[in-house]
Design goal:
The protein is built from 16 helices and 30 strands. By secondary structure, it is an alpha/beta fold. The radius of gyration is 35 Å and the shape is extended.
Length: 586
């Protein structure tokens, strides 16, 4: 995603930094020019990411999405008549550079420097601490800052790393040429690592009439290795008698000999073919011969005891509980016990969630949760990544449910996870109706579709709310996220809800709430086993209302009054989406 000049400058700086440290680690130092070059070639400010712990607001740039460049000075005068800006330079400036004025009113003014003057004299380069006058199309103000966002000299130097012939790291070769009348000319090549290649001309050498081959004339053709990765180290030319071979034949033999050396060098990297133990047809599940006639179960995914009660009381068949909890409240062992007890007292099933993301430092806590889940013996434990599946198969005998972060998008994935032992799984929310219908017709574990709720678009270790509102000390967040609701607004003014969990991770949710209320009858006809309401972000009142609506729609199907009277839209608000069910992801 970066231009080659950027790669060249960064690699060069780190190469020399590493070499400097290896030579003398006690006096290791990064040159100031290297730091300037890294900032100049592209920067949005710099960060140490999470290497030294959570970095708060310094984790990423919040000011601009593109290159901010390096400050080169300030405007000290603007001549309206000629539209000339005079800049007092902090850094050198060259014709061909691109500069950007950070205008106090009006944003940014971008200018390519085609001409400039110092003390009225036209120059191609101006040094630091001088005042340079530059034509500019838009007005700027005195004291506006000026940044260089394209450095012509640096770009030229960077391009030299990969555009010059000598930029290629070449491999030395020894070449032997033998030729005699009545025989083909033979070229034998051996590189510095012992790899060889040989080729001969199709032309049989003849007695020369005018210009016999000489060592010099042969060398002239053999040395033409510029387009290859090789360089000539030594040439041994054995010519018997006065013979002639066309130059085109020599060049062709040289190319074929080089190709054989290249093939020999690459052979060590060729992977052995995978054993064909299975054909693609064996990876695809079989078609279900008997269609499902039972109604789908209603699943509600929640993270608090009061929501468990609301879901159960309003008709949920299964409650999913735990995992990441919005509002930063961690669930206790007693919470899990109460949730399981309430569901079972009312004849409902419960699934416990594992966190979608599990870091090494969380493993002890996760293992404690697994021990608790083994004791409570839920219907299943829901997992969202392959590593957690392995951990649970080692530590638990409770059935496993595969959640949608596993990206269950096609029948081969679904079949693999079924064969891995999962008893149920949530399909990717990126599937269309047709793709759901196709998967529901296969012999697989029970399949579940997301039908309602604010779905998570992204989880981030970087917490924007804590960084901006959590206080100056990133180690002592004031938990502003618990006092108010917040959203991210995009360029189209769409608002995306932000939620935080007990691990201080940020969840960016879809700005529109998924709702498939009008299409429950069609979902039921697919033969899908479960319909799921993602309710962690929903209020207690909404959990009760939406759960009740889906319960009634599943029970009555097409006979539901809202469907029969075409009034189902009255149960929805304006800011809803049908997801990808009708438009796919392309």
């Amino acid at each position: 995603m970066k231009r080659p000049e950027y790669v060249a400058v960064v690699v060069d700086a780190y190469r020399r930094a590493l070499d400097s440290y290896l030579i003398n680690c006690d006096q290791y130092d990064v040159k100031e020019q290297d730091q300037k070059d890294l900032a100049q070639i592209f920067n949005r400010d710099f960060t140490t990411a999470h290497l030294y712990g959570k970095n708060g607001r310094m984790m990423m740039s919040d000011r601009r999405p593109n290159n901010r460049g390096v400050r080169v000075g300030r405007v000290i005068d603007y001549q309206h008549n000629g539209k000339i800006a005079v800049i007092k330079l902090d850094e050198p400036l060259v014709v061909g550079d691109i500069i950007e004025f950070w205008v106090k009113v009006g944003g940014r003014v971008n200018v390519t420097v085609h001409t400039m003057t110092v003390d009225g004299i036209t120059v191609t380069e101006a040094q630091a601490h001088t005042a340079v006058a530059i034509p500019i199309g838009s007005p700027v103000r005195v004291n506006d800052r000026v940044f260089k966002v394209f450095d012509a000299k640096l770009m030229e130097r960077a391009r030299a790393y990969f555009s010059r012939a000598e930029a290629v790291r070449r491999i030395p070769v020894d070449i032997a040429v033998t030729v005699a009348e009545g025989k083909p000319l033979v070229i034998s090549i051996k590189d510095s690592e012992g790899f060889t290649g040989q080729a001969e001309t199709t032309f049989i050498a003849e007695k020369a009439v005018k210009r016999p081959l000489t060592s010099e004339s042969v060398a002239k053709q053999i040395e033409r290795l510029g387009t290859t990765i090789f360089s000539l180290n030594a040439l041994d030319c054995q010519i018997e008698g006065e013979v002639m071979v066309p130059v085109s034949e020599i060049n062709d033999a040289r190319r074929r000999a080089i190709e054989k050396v290249e093939t020999a060098r690459l052979a060590r990297f060729v992977r052995a073919s995978l054993p064909k133990t299975k054909s693609i047809s064996e990876l695809v599940p079989q078609v279900r011969t008997v269609p499902s006639s039972s109604k789908p179960k209603l699943v509600v995914n929640i993270d608090s005891i009061d929501k468990v009660k609301a879901a159960v009381d309003n008709g949920a068949d299964i409650v999913m509980f735990g995992g990441e909890c919005f509002g930063k409240r961690s669930l206790s062992d007693e919470d899990y016990r109460q949730a399981a007890a309430y569901a079972r007292q009312h004849g409902r099933k419960i699934i416990f969630n594992m966190p979608r993301l599990v870091q090494q430092g969380q493993l002890a806590e996760v293992k404690e949760n697994i021990r608790l889940f083994n004791e409570l013996n839920p219907e299943a434990i829901s997992v969202g990544n392959i590593g957690t599946i392995q951990l649970l198969q080692e530590l638990s005998t409770v059935p496993l449910h595969g959640d949608y972060p596993l990206n269950i998008y096609n029948s081969i994935t679904a079949n693999y996870l079924t064969n891995l032992g999962l008893t149920s799984m949530t399909l990717s929310p990126e599937l269309t109706f047709g793709q759901v219908e196709d998967l529901a017709g296969k012999k697989l574990a029970q399949l579940e579709c997301l039908v309602h709720g604010h779905l998570t678009l992204m989880i981030s270790e970087y917490c924007m709310l804590g960084s901006f509102l959590g206080g100056p000390d990133s180690r002592k967040c004031n938990h502003a996220c618990q006092r108010n609701q917040y959203w991210l607004k995009d360029r189209k003014d769409e608002l995306f809800p932000i939620a935080t969990d007990q691990f201080c991770r940020m969840h960016v949710l879809n700005g529109k709430e998924l709702s498939m209320l009008p299409h429950v009858p069609r979902l039921m006809r697919t033969g899908i086993s479960r319909l799921r309401f993602e309710a962690k972000y929903s209020s207690l009142k909404e959990v009760a209302r939406i759960t009740g609506l889906y319960r009634a729609l599943i029970d009555l199907g097409e006979n539901h009054p809202l469907l029969m009277e075409d009034k189902i839209a009255s149960a929805e608000h304006d800011n809803i989406t049908r997801g990808h069910y009708f438009r796919g992801i392309l």
